[in-house]
Amino acid sequence: MLERDHNRAFCAVRPPGHHATADTAMGFCLFNNVAVAAAYARDKYGLERIAIVDFDVHHGNGTQDIFEADPKVAYYSTHQSGLFPYSGNMRERGVGNICNILLPPGSDSFRFRNTWADDMLPQIDAFRPQLLLISAGFDAHRGDPQADLMVETEDFAWLTTELVAIANRHGGRRVVSMLEGGYDLHALGECSVAHVGALLAP
Ligand SMILES: [Zn+2]
């Protein structure tokens, strides 16, 4: 990715990773895949602005825990309020590199898109990430049995397109997406296809 011509990658990994801390597996997660990628890009390639964007319906407590004192890695997460792992309060700001926004149960496309468009995407853009990593969980989908958000398949494609645009402005077009949650298999397949389709755009 950082040495060759590939600008986008989607890693269909199982188990997911964003709940795992540096030394503790939890929430179906053994190793924090996206955190390993961010740390590798930082340490091997010397990147100084790496953004991790997490739209899984759960808070990526492990990712936040690993980077909350590291200003080179910024973490942006929307997640449903009152849901496992019960972290990700908006007051958790790290060293100014953590941004959490809670979505109440029942939040729909309108709320989801507005939250990203008005609050989150401008902050990611201002950070000017050299590499954009995505914790791509699709359990905010309206059909998912593990949560109560009402996000539609097209919303994930929309958000992916917005993130690709930010990477194109600042990141040498580099986006690496890693699968996180998603427990309705039909929705998971549909959302993954929509997400990868948006990643493939120039
Ligand atoms: Zn999840």
How would you describe the overall organization of this protein?
- This protein has 202 residues and is of the alpha/beta class.
- The protein has a single domain, classed as Histone deacetylase domain (Arginase, Chain A, 3-Layer(aba) Sandwich), CATH 3.40.800.20.
- It is 36% helix and 17% strand.
- The chain is built from five helices and six strands; from the N terminus they run E-H-E-H-E-E-H-E-H-E-H.
- It has a six-stranded parallel beta sheet with strand order 1-6-5-2-3-4, sandwiched between helices.
- Helix 4 runs parallel beside helix 5.
- The longest helix is centred in the middle third of the chain and has 19 residues.
- It binds zinc ion.
- The site of zinc ion (ZN) has 7 residues, from loops.
Task: Output the keywords.
202 residues, alpha/beta, Arginase, Chain A, six-stranded parallel sheet, 5 helices, 17% strand, globular, binds zinc ion
Short description:
With 202 residues, the chain is an alpha/beta fold.
Quick check: average pLDDT? 96
* Number of separate domains: 1
The residue fraction in helices comes out at 25-40%
CATH class category: Alpha Beta
**Could you name the ranges where pLDDT drops below 50 across 5 or more consecutive residues?**
none
Q: Which structural class fits the helix and strand makeup?
A: alpha/beta
CATH superfamily, called what?
Answer: Histone deacetylase domain
Sheet with most strands: strand arrangement: 1-6-5-2-3-4
Order of helices and strands: EHEHEEHEHEH
CATH topology: Arginase, Chain A
Indicate the CATH architecture.
Answer: 3-Layer(aba) Sandwich
Overall 3D shape: globular
Roughly how many Å is the radius of gyration? 15 Å
Strand content: 15-25%
Number of helices: 5
The total of beta strands comes to: 6
Bound molecules: zinc ion
- Terminal-residue CA separation: 16 Å
Q: Please summarize the sheet with the most strands.
A: 6 strands, parallel
